[in-house]
Structures are given as C-alpha cells and as structure tokens.
Amino acid sequence: MGELVDFFVRSRNFILFVLLEVLCFYFIINTSNYWSATYFNTSNRYAAKVLAWSNAANEYTRLRQVNADLAMENQRLNTRLTRLLQSKPAAPAEYQADSAFADRFKYTVAKVVDNTTQFANNYITIDKGTDDGIRPGMGVISPTGIVGKVKVCNRHFSVVTSILHSEYLVSSRLTKAGDVGTAKWDGVDPHLIKLNDISLTKTVNKGDSAVTSEYNTTFPPGILVGRVRSVGVQPNKTFHDITLLLSTNFSNLSFVYVVENRLQQEQDQLEKQVETEK
User: Per the database record, which ranges form the Rod shape-determining protein MreC beta-barrel core domain (predicted)?
Assistant: First the structure.
C-alpha cells in the first residue's frame, strides 16, 4: 500500500495533467455539435473494426467444431445416397434390390491423426478402433473420393493402408468407357495413380472419371478414384497407359469415413465354400 501511495505522490503532476486533458476533451465533445458528431462517428468506426476482428477470431477458433459437424453431416448424406443408389442400380427395370443389400454399407466418421505420403508404402492413422466397430478390411473414403483400407486396429485407433501403397490395388471403372481396370500407385507422385488393364478398343479421353467398380466388397460402387490426366499406349501391349489425377488430396486429409459392408462376411464365406468344393 505504501508503494502505491508513493507512486501517486511521485506521479501527481502527470496524473493531474491526464485528468485535466480528459475533462477538457469531455467539455469539447459536449459543447460542440461538430466535435460530438466527429467523436461518435470515429468511435463507432473503430468499435466496429474491433468487433469484426473479435468475430473473425471467434469463428477461427470454431473451425474445428464446424469441420466436425460437416463431417457428421457428410456421413449421413453418404449413407442416404448409397442406400438410394444401391436400391435403384443401373440394371434392367424389373430388377429391384432387397432392403438388406441396398442398406449394406454403413459409414463411421474418423479423424486423421497421422498420415504419410513420402514413402513407397504409406499409411494413415485414424482415431477410431474396435470400440467404435472398426475392423481390418473395411474401406476408407474421404469427402472427395477413395482413401484406402483398414489394416490393423486396437481399441481406440486404426492404421489404414493408403491407396498410396505400392501393393494396394483398387478395382476401378471408367464411367464413360464402361471398362473395368485396376488402379495402382507407382510410388512417384502422391497426386497421381495409374489405371491399368483398360483395352485399346475403348475410347478414353482426358478428364474422364474413374470410380470404384461393382466388383469389390470393400467400397460402394461409384466412389470417385480420380480423373484421367493423360492417355498413352503401353509398348507391345493392348492396353492404354492411363494416369489418373487422384480425387483425394492426401496432403491435407482431416476427416475420413470408414465404410462397413454388413454383408461382406456372408459373401466371403459363400465364395470360400465354392472354392473349397472345386
């Protein structure tokens, strides 16, 4: 307390000067319409700027929650869209898928906690595990396209084999040509992937879309893999040399969706039974 009193005693002249300045400023504003209007216009302008900065800062801090909310909404929309497409596939008009088949895909939102793109064999870690119903073999997609397949899990985390893996193959179909091939990363550019086994008899143009085909149990058909970046001819082969620009940007993955095929185990068991009986 004594130090505070000493401070006021030492600074009494400066404090008196500030008080007189404030008092003069007050009288000027209250006795002159011009200066009063100028003061309020100026103060309102700066107050508006401060408020805008404050709102921008608050919105920035809420981006994480906004992204999480959008991911949940995309999960619901993906589920509804897949159910609709599977119940009314591009098939003869008399064909109607049963409800179990149409509703066989389930989506679970997960956040990416680790991700590599610089190796020949890349992996992604997500924050969902067996406690959330995740198990090895499930497909993983992003809001823009395919990502990979779950490799191993523990209770709270899962490691995903990225499509940027030298041994990972994805059955893919060109939407315009209708031909089915295999998408496989060549280990060079994390934005590009090769599409193999597309016959030269099929017309392929730059910009054509490649999506997951119907001949797999991991992903719903129609998930975007990429778009044709370049088309050439493989030497001494009857296939196109096709490079796709991947639809998923692996350098900024944030949220993904783990895809569960509820009928996959039943289908696998039946197909294994046929193989053993051959």
Answer: 112-260
Looking only at the bridges linking them, the beta strands covering 139-141 and 169-174 are unpaired
Tell me which H or E stretch contains 61.
Answer: helix 33-61
For the chain, what percentages of helix, strand and coil (3-state, to nearest 5) are there?
40, 30, 30
Regarding the domain delimited by 169-249, which CATH topology (the fold level of the hierarchy) does it fall under?
Thrombin, subunit H (2.40.10)
d(CA 163, CA 155): 24
pTM: 0.67
Q: Which residues pair with 148 in a beta bridge?
A: 140, 162
Residue 104: its pLDDT value, please? Answer: 81
Higher pLDDT, 60 or 197: 197
> What is the third-level CATH fold of 81-166+252-261?
Thrombin, subunit H (2.40.10)
